[in-house]
Write a structure and sequence with these properties.
The longest helix is centred in the C-terminal third of the chain and has 34 residues. The protein has one domain. The radius of gyration is 23 Å and the shape is elongated. Helix 1 runs antiparallel to helix 2 and helix 1 runs parallel beside helix 3. The chain has 145 residues and is mainly alpha-helical. The protein is 56% helix and 4% strand. The protein has 3 helices and 2 strands. A two-stranded antiparallel ribbon has the order 1-2. This is Copper transport protein. One of its GO terms (cellular component) is plasma membrane. Pfam families: Ctr (PF04145). InterPro entries: Cop_transporter. It is a multi-pass membrane protein.
Length: 145
């Protein structure tokens, strides 16, 4: 909403001379996570898109928790799971901060990374379940008489 004389663009000036967008926009001229990154060229923007995709993918893959093995050291297991959770949360916050750039390309690759990561996890779980079911049904139990 423009209340007089403006061009209707929702931008906020920043100290470094760049403008922070307050609505989604398309374009390679964006800052993500660090000042001046990516630079204002297409190659660095594509690298940033790939980086955000990998961050989102890693968040989903780290969300898959393996079952605790019976007899394992509960302290060691708890510390390991807490460290993985902390890493996952840190990466999730980096994805969130990247999306807060309001760049539509960054938003789309973040969603795609989460989707691909979720698919990989669900596919692996379904496949391991299928293999477990097959091995149960084809085991060498003696025939019941």
């Amino acid at each position: 909403m423009d209340h007089g004389g403006g061009d209707g663009d929702m931008k906020m000036p920043m100290p470094n001379g760049m403008m922070m967008h307050m609505t989604f926009f398309w374009g390679k001229n964006v800052e993500i996570l660090f000042p001046g990154w990516p630079e204002k060229n297409l190659g660095m923007y594509i690298l940033a898109l790939f980086f955000v995709f990998l961050l989102a993918l890693a968040v989903e893959i780290l969300s898959f928790s393996h079952a605790v093995k019976p007899g394992s050291n509960p302290t060691k297991t708890g510390l390991t799971q807490a460290a993985i959770h902390a890493l996952r949360m840190g990466l999730a916050y980096l994805v969130m901060l990247s999306v807060m750039s309001f760049n539509a390309g960054i938003f789309l690759v973040a969603v795609a990374g989460h989707a691909v990561g979720s698919f990989i996890i669900k596919f692996r779980v379904a496949r391991s379940q299928q293999i477990a079911d097959q091995s149960f049904h084809t085991s060498s139990f003696p025939p019941k008489v």
